[in-house]
Amino acid sequence: MDISRNTMEIATACATALVGGVVCYGASLNGISWNESGPQPGYFPFYIGALIIFGSAATILQTVLRRASTSDVFIDGERLRTIVAFFLPIVVMVAISAWLGLYIGMALYTFYAMRMAAGFRTATSLLTAAIVVAVNFVIFEKIFMVPLLKGPILEYFGIY
């Protein structure tokens, strides 16, 4: 199954237009006009959303007009399998992080990416996963003092 560049450009433009529509809708709930004290809170976000929609429409128009001359393959079956092989573990990491905490999810994903996907030795993969978690812990928890989701395992060991 091949996906053409034109198909992907149109799909991406539709997705960004949808984002622009959500921005416009949210802004309209806060007021998008001027009153006696100036612009209402949704005034500027509404026009940013409108610009996103306009840019998306221009991309769709440009893609449709050159459709006859371009049939480049954006992604083929083999490339799609490679993307899915890295994307699905990220989805699993997000699920694990929500359940067991970000540091556990980060460690498991780093280990998986290095050991299973890239083929590094087990010891190297474990050491790298531990270093990634430790560095992130120091940066976020100690330096920036931004607590990240710990989950029940780290709380059990008294790491809050």
From TrEMBL:
All residue ranges annotated as the DUF1468 domain in the record: 16-148
Keywords: Membrane, Transmembrane, Transmembrane helix
Keyword set includes Membrane: yes
Keyword Transmembrane on entry: yes
Signal sequence extent: none
InterPro entries: DUF1468 (IPR009936)
Residue stretches spanning the membrane: 42-65, 86-112, 118-140
Name of protein: DUF1468 domain-containing protein
